Amino acid sequence: MKKRCGVVLMKYWQPKYETMNREELAALQSKRLKKTTVSVFNNVPFYNKKFKELGIKPDDIRSIEDINKLPTTKKPDLRDNYPFDLFAVAKSDIVRIHASSGTSGKPTVVGYTAKDIDTWSDLMARNFTMVGLDETDVFQNAVNYGLFTGGLGFHYGIEKIGAMTVPSGTGNTARQLEMMIDFGVTALHCTPSYALYLAETAHEMNIVDKLSLKVGCFGAEPWSSNTRKQLEDALNIKAYDSYGLSELMGPGVAFECEEQDGLHVWSDHFFVEVLDENEEQVAEGEKGELVLTSLTKQALPIIRYRTGDITRLLESECSCGRTTTRISRLLGRADDMLIVRGINIFPSQIEDVIVKIPEVTEHFQIIVDRNNKMMDELTVRVELEEEAFTGELKDLAAVKRHVENELKGILNIRTNVELVERGTIPRTAGKSKKVVDRRAAL
Ligand code: DLL
User: Fold this and answer.
1) Out of 37, 78, 274, 354, which could bridge 108 as a Cys pair, Cβ 3.0 to 4.6 Å?
2) What is the pTM for the complete model shown?
3) Do residue 205 and residue 341 come from a single domain?
């Protein structure tokens, strides 16, 4: 075991939990689910009432297979119990809260005991170890520190592996890049949309070869595999997908390994279901809503949380040797899905097309309108690259036509492409807003 300055540096690769066989894992999950069920029944009036309405008692939950007897929990349940009514411990046992802003009404507030914070930091540390980071790394955490879980969530995990943390937060892109060069930063965390902006700025400043980056951890919003490629090429890194949500903990719920073939959910702490709109399990390999149950949380245990995020369960074994449940890259949120003329469209499908076309940048915005014949119209605003006409497409009309055709091939719907000057579409260090749906205002 390595020591530095008197502190033992754990290697956060935990074969005992990460490579359990199915039976061992099910036994551990069963034990932890039973404990969680008792905790919510005894301590959270919301769950106590729900259990009684369904005629179930904690004793009815004998194994993880009984999970479908339990009620689901939805976002409005957290809002209705604002701020602390879903907590299963006394307020004096809470050492930290976080909150997610939410688009309407009250934010949802989540709480952590000291043990929860420790578990969370351990899981983050496991993620970093999984992608080869250790105490020799310098890790820049370029997300908002504060009520958003991404800042402190990553920060504690980075410190746990003993890496040097650069808590840069958000803002001032040129300064972020300067820090990366001056401090020899090897790993970066930010949203994928901000990473694209950082990469674009680094290229404009002609400083990419001064960077020592090797790993990027990107998440908090959907991004596509083409964006991954774009970021890996632009910054000379391996880019990993990081998934999480405040209600379950924050980042650290699921993370990619070096195989980059789906995300490992830490199954010793979270139980995964993928359900259809009737809360039935989808067929193997089908898309559905990710539903998560926390198995070890003290302050805010949560049962069958309907995340609203769309994914697929990956059944095959991962070549890395970990046996945890694996999910595919998140396709988007059920409520991000646009229905335009009866066709389901996810912004990530559009992103996949746009980032492959060299004549335009990766930044785009989707605008949905309803015309005077009450027909929906889809416009995708994309930025023209500065050297757009050096290839086969020689003018604006040709680029526009090409992007429209590529989009039609994927979406099966006619799209109007509006080409704008590079830099027109707002860049943000937080979660990007890709859709402007004007139909709601009509
Ligand atoms: O975004 C936690 C987080 C921080 C995750 C930093 C990763 C990195 P919330 O603000 O509560 O928490 O938002 C959670 O963001 O339900 C998804 O819709 C979306 N989301 C998070 N990660 C991904 C991802 C944090 N990798 C909501 N891919 C979730 C797609 C993601 N969507």
Assistant:
1) 78
2) 0.90
3) no
- Cβ proximity of 203 and 234 under 8 Å: yes
Q: Which pLDDT does position 103 carry in this prediction?
A: 53
Number of H helices, E strands in the chain: 11, 22
pLDDT tens profile 332-353: 887 788 889 888 898 988 998 9
Q: Please, are residues 364 and 193 in contact by the beta-carbon 8 Å criterion?
A: no
Report residue 60 as tokens: 């009815």
Residue 426 neighbours by CB distance under 10 Å: 9
Given 308, 335, 362, which residue is the final one in a domain?
335
> What average pLDDT does range 131-150 have in this prediction?
96
Instruction: Identify the DSSP state of 402.
Output: H
Q: Is the predicted pLDDT of residue 371 greater than 90, yes or no?
A: no
Q: Note whether 250 and 312 are same-domain residues.
A: yes
Integer Cα distance of 216 and 232 in angstroms: 8
Nearest C-alpha to atom 12 of ligand 1 is from which residue?
245
Give the residue carrying structure tokens 């994928």.
192
Cα–Cα dist 36/281, whole Å: 22
Average pLDDT estimate for 355-369: 94
Q: Which residues line ligand 1 (CB under 6 A)?
A: 100, 149-150, 219-222, 241-246, 250-251, 307, 309, 330, 333
The CA-to-CA distance between both ends of the chain, in Å, stands at 64
The number of C-alpha atoms within 13 Å of 295 and in the hemisphere containing its C-beta is: 22
Which atom of ligand 1 lies closest to the CA of 244? 5
**Closest atom of ligand 1 relative to the 250 alpha carbon:** 2
